[in-house]
Amino acid sequence: MKAIIITLIVVVGIGAGLWKVSSDRRAEVLAKNEAIRQERDAAVRNERLEFFGAAGLDPAITWTDSGLGYIIYAEGTGARPIPGSEVTFNYIVKLKDGREVDRTKDPIEARIGQMIPGVSAGLQKIQVGGRALLFIPPKLGYGSREYGSIPPDSGLLFEVALVD
């Protein structure tokens, strides 16, 4: 009987020790994961500030996995374009400092997939008659190339209106 009690005490002690180690390890992993998440969130925040200024931190912006951000001003009621669709739209392009660098005088026609990736993806978020503000990072815009009055590595604020 004494041996059984001693065995039970040893087994319970080992179990409690293993539980403590497991609990400590879990807390360590959770803390490490939280630190990684906070570091990643800070990097994303800093990137958005770099490319779009304070406007890039607006909580109304929906961000896609590709890095495109958008705010829908008017959803529209017509068809939503798909890759390859011929679209007619107006746009105004600004840099993070608010400087306008391009705009359409009349609606232009283009094919989804044959313009910068950020505009192609952004136009697919609205229906005909819709308007949106697109936050296009350089990797979805002109990248490290200078384009007209757009400096290399610029984030672009594209206000678009899908006409047809």
Low-pLDDT runs: none
Query: Rg from C-alpha positions?
Result: 26 Å
What's the story with the biggest beta sheet? 7 strands, antiparallel
Count of extended strands: 7
SSE arrangement, N to C: HEEEEEHEE
Give structural notes:
- This protein has 164 residues and is of the alpha+beta class.
- The protein folds into two domains: 2-54; 58-162, Chitinase A, domain 3.
- It is built from two helices and seven strands.
- The protein has helices at 2-52, 117-123; strands spanning 62-63, 69-74, 86-94, 100-103, 108-111, 131-136, 156-162.
- Strands 1, 2, 3, 4, 5, 6 and 7 form a seven-stranded antiparallel sheet that branches.
- A hairpin with a 5-residue loop joins strand 1 and strand 2 (69-74).
Give a quick set of tags describing it.
164 residues, alpha+beta, Chitinase A, domain 3, elongated
Summarize it.
This protein is an alpha+beta fold.
Blueprint of the fold:
Layout: H1 2-52, E1 62-63, E2 69-74, E3 86-94, E4 100-103, E5 108-111, H2 117-123, E6 131-136, E7 156-162
Antiparallel strand pairs: 1-2, 2-6, 3-4, 3-5, 3-7, 6-7
